[in-house]
Design a protein that fits this description.
It is a single chain. The protein has one helix and four strands; from the N terminus they run αββββ. It has a four-stranded antiparallel sheet with strand order 3-2-1-4, with no helix packed on it. With 84 residues, the protein is of the alpha+beta class. It is elongated, with a radius of gyration of 22 Å. It has one helix at 2-18, and strands at 27-36, 40-45, 48-53, 69-74. The chain has a domain at 24-76.
């Protein structure tokens, strides 16, 4: 009886790991700061400019200055999805 309970427990753990969601993937963008203020930063790489919002939960050692090379780590998060 104990052996059956142990086997069932192990199977439940294996199934839980099989259906677990992978962690959100962090992406990164490296370039030079074009503009920065209290709630957003614009970073340019080549001809492309990307704007990132940030708040008090964003980890920053110091506020980057215009022209500084930075790497922004971010996750993609949908705010609205419409089906047509």
């Amino acid at each position: 009886m104990k052996r059956a309970i142990v086997v069932i427990g192990i199977l439940l753990i294996v199934v839980a790991f099989a259906f677990a969601r992978p962690a959100k993937t962090d992406y990164q963008w490296t370039g030079n700061v074009v503009e920065v203020d209290n709630d957003h930063i614009i970073v340019q790489k080549g001809e492309e400019k990307w704007e990132f919002a940030h708040d008090k939960t964003t980890k920053m050692a110091a506020t980057p200055k215009v022209g500084a090379k930075v790497t922004v780590y971010y996750v993609m998060n949908a705010t609205k999805i419409e089906a047509k």
